[in-house]
Specification:
The chain is of the alpha+beta class and 134 residues long. Helices cover 49% and strands 25% of the residues. It has one domain: Alpha-Beta Plaits. The chain has a four-stranded antiparallel beta sheet.
């Protein structure tokens, strides 16, 4: 998948609750789910970026490992610099205490190679399933 805006870099941003899952459950109990607050924090995170950097930045949920939501964004170098400045100056604060846990900048060629590998793996899994069905 190519970036929607020409000549941008792909930035993977990990968002997670500031504490452990136990701390989350202790604080919020059963009144709200992790996913509900994660979604609200994701929207709030995007709003912060739109207000402070550029409304045209494209975001997509990219994946999840445990309690960490990875978001994919297409940014120009200048936007990446502004984003890094927001992180360094602790300006990204959500109401429910979700934080930026990690940032990875991917070269376009590396991203295309990774996507091709994923598609190949998915196709292999489908073929294996079809062989089992026969």
């Amino acid at each position: 998948m190519k970036p929607d805006r020409k000549d941008t870099k792909i930035v993977l941003i990990d968002l997670k609750y500031k504490g452990s899952m136990n701390e989350f459950e202790e604080f919020y109990g059963f009144s709200v789910t992790y996913q509900e607050l994660e979604q609200q924090s994701y929207v709030e995170f995007k709003d912060i970026i739109f207000e402070n950097i550029n409304k045209k930045i494209k975001f997509r949920k990219y994946g999840r490992i445990g309690p960490i939501l990875t978001v994919r964004a297409n940014m120009y170098d200048s936007e990446i610099d502004e984003f890094e400045n927001l992180i360094e100056n602790n300006k990204i604060k959500t109401i429910y205490d979700w934080t930026v846990n990690g940032v990875t900048i991917i070269k376009e060629e590396d991203f295309e190679a990774e996507e091709a590998i994923k598609k190949g793996n998915e196709k292999n899994e489908e073929n294996e399933e079809n062989e089992e069905d026969e």
